[in-house]
Structures are given as C-alpha cells and as structure tokens.
Amino acid sequence: MSETSNIAEMAEKVSEDIFKWFKWTQIPIKDLNFKCHKGAEHSSSTQEKKTHPVDTIFKYKDPYKGREIFFNTDLKSYQKASITSSSVRDALNSLARTIDCADGSEEWSKRYALNSDNYEIRGLLFVYNHDGEYHNSFTDLFKPKVGKGGKFFGGINIGNLPVREGQQIHIIEPLLIQYMRTIISDMDKLHREGLFPEKTYSFYYPDLLQHKLKGDTNQHPATIELISGPYIIIKHEDITKWCEIQKTPVVRYGKGYVIYYNRTGETSLEFIYLFDMLSNLQILRTKENKIRIRVAHNKPFDDIRSSFQTAIAMYTHSLGGDEYKAEVLRSIEFEIVEQTKTVFSTNNIGWDR
C-alpha cells in the first residue's frame, strides 16, 4: 500500500475508533459509489455527473425525534497546508450534491437504510489533520479576507453551497476530533481507576416541553448537536469492580454524572450558566448523585479554578439560604483533563494491512 493510500486511511481509522464510544453505529459497507439520478442538475461544466461517493455511513437514533439519522460521510485526511477554504469548499459542494441525490435514490436506500422506514439523511465532513500541526480555528476558513481596495476574497460562502432546504451538513474538524479523543482517553483512564463504567453509561437528555424523549434512555447516543455543544453530560449508576481480596464485587464509586466541558472557563458567568442549567435539570437536587465537571477544552483559561470557585460563591449567594443545594455545589469535583492527540505513522498504517 502506498503512503498516499495510508494517509487516506487515517481518517477512516480515527472515525471508527471515535464514534463507537459515542454510541454511533457504522454500516459495514464502505467506499461504494451510487448512481446519480439527477443528471444535468449535478453535472459540472465539463461532464455529467455519473456517480456520487460514499466513504462510509454512520447512524444513530435521535433521542427526541425517534428517527434514525444517517450520516453520508466524506472522510478527509489532510496535512495542515491542505486545509484551505478551497479544499473544504470543494468537499462541501460534493457532499451537498451527494446527500441531495441520496435522498431520492432507491440504490442508496436499499444498500444503507435496510429495514428503516423513518430516517433522515445528512452529510458529514470528517476532517482529520494527519500531521497534527493544524491549530487554527476552522471557522476562519469561512471568513472572507480583505484585499487591496477593500475588496473581499476567499472564504466559504455558506449561502452558495448547493444544500437543499431541509437538509443538513455537519463538519467534524481537527479541534473537535481532539476534544472527542480527549474525552475517550479520559473515560478510559477513569475506568482503569475504577471511577467510570466500561459500557453502562448513557448520554443525558432532559424531557423538553415540546419534545419528549423516545426509546431506551440507557441507549441514547451523543448526537452531533451534543458533541458540538459546550458540554456533554454522561449519567452512570454505581461503579462496581471485582475485589480480588474479598472475592466479590464492590462499589468503587457512587452513581452520578460526569460533565465534559468544552469552553475556556475564562469568566465565572460561564459556570453560573452551567449551574443554572444543572439546577433546571434537577441534577443539583440530591447529594446521592455525585457530580464531576471535567474540562476538556484544548486551551482552558490559566486561572479557570478561580473562575469556578467564584461562580460557586456567587451562585450560592443567589440561592437565598438554600444550604442543601449550596452543599451540593461545593461537593462538585472539578478537574482539567489532559489533552489527547492521535497522530498515526503512515508506515504503521501500511503494516496493518
């Protein structure tokens, strides 16, 4: 296998490893094109489009809609210099045409949707930085630059992408991949220490006024919206481990919540907002459930612990003498998570074949 092929395979290996932890399912059929049925509408200036690519398909059942969400996924493995507005724009244009065609394709439906009759097709652009050197904000690629005479150039105009009304494209970019890998590594570390379950954890969603949860709450995945948000709440029961001395299972850590936080924590207002949200979800109502906030942002504020403690003092003061809830707040465990980066060797990828 060539080095170029090895590089292309990196995004595939990373995505497979990541999504299973977030309770996404990967359909085993990979790298198969399907016929374009929109002809001239999807043609370029030089030739008519014959097929659309499908690198892989991930899916999950949405906790609120009860509908299966299929992600027609384009896997990209780029070095830093290749992550440009032009390359990302081309990928998004191709992906937009692909999901537009997939939505009415009998071939796509029979191959991937199988027995599903209530589903939605979305696009997913997965951008893995294989040299580990890309540290820029991905949103900068969408911002036009100012040239001579005040003229704008470059950038990606979202309004010009051929995304049909009602369809969605999501992007998982290098920093979000790093955040997800950091969470997975931390979960694994906690499990080895007897502080997190191996598999019996669930992603927490509240019942909303207009949208009630559907399905088994213990099987709910981390949706793309949750992963991209400021925090992820994971609920777990008592964590038991086999005690070799007592020859019996013992509770190593009580039931509760682990909250992975993906903001800098520069101001106490961030955490006051978080406490308010936890209070509305009634997570602060009992001491029985342990609460752990674990900051997984790639560049947390240097004095983030002061921001957190200030927020506790301010929020406690606002409770108007509710000492019980104040004790729950003061009992929250607060940690900064060690960052994890995954960079594969192209040679090692080749030996795996």
Descriptive tags:
single chain, 353 residues, alpha/beta, five-stranded mixed beta sheet, 9 helices, 16 strands, 31% helix, disordered C terminus
Molecular structure report:
With 353 residues, this protein is an alpha/beta fold. It folds into 2 domains: 3-172, no CATH class; 182-336, no CATH class. Helix content is 31%, strand content 22%. It contains 9 helices and 16 strands. The protein has helices spanning 3-19, 85-102, 106-113, 174-192, 224-227, 268-280, 304-318, 323-330, 346-351, and strands at residues 25-27, 34-35, 51-52, 56-61, 68-78, 119-129, 145-146, 152-153, 169-172, 201-203, 231-236, 239-243, 248-253, 256-261, 290-295, 333-336. The strands form 5 sheets. The protein has a 5-stranded mixed β-sheet with strand order 1-4-5-6-9. Strands 10-11-14-15-16 form a 5-stranded mixed β-sheet, with no helix packed on it. The chain is globular.
